[in-house]
Amino acid sequence: MLPLRAVAARHSYSPYSKFPVGAAVLAASGKIYTGANIENASFGLCNCAERTAVFTAAAAGERKLRAVAIYTPTPTATAPCGACRQVLNEFGPDMTVLSTCDSDDRLETTLPKLLPFGFGPQDLA
Ligand code: THU
What we know:
Elements: H1 4-11, E1 22-27, E2 32-36, H2 49-59, E3 65-71, H3 82-91, E4 96-100, E5 107-110, H4 111-114
Parallel strand pairs: 3-4
Antiparallel strand pairs: 1-2, 1-3, 4-5
The chain binds tetrahydrodeoxyuridine (THU).
């Protein structure tokens, strides 16, 4: 698999922010799906790298995600935005979240820590 920095550099479409992000999700099947941020001239419709990766996995039939790894072009590791936390929660409520950046700084945590009391499928059951 490409390093996430390379996923971001090669596949990110970020002409407005010039902030290329790469992400990869590990599914319960053992497969890994990558994504990059895809921006839009209508700024509100920009899609983060994490959500691109989740939607790619889901479109391939995956329904259980174990972990997500993220690269942002920053000096320190950053956590996923609120919208991405909600989307990650749909298929990976217990998942590990690992953030990487342009230095050796790392953030390793879990989705329940980033999204406590999250709203999910169980709330509609
Ligand atoms: N972005 C991501 O793709 N993931 C993050 O975790 C943070 C933000 C994108 C959204 C937008 O395309 C650009 O980075 C600037 O916010």
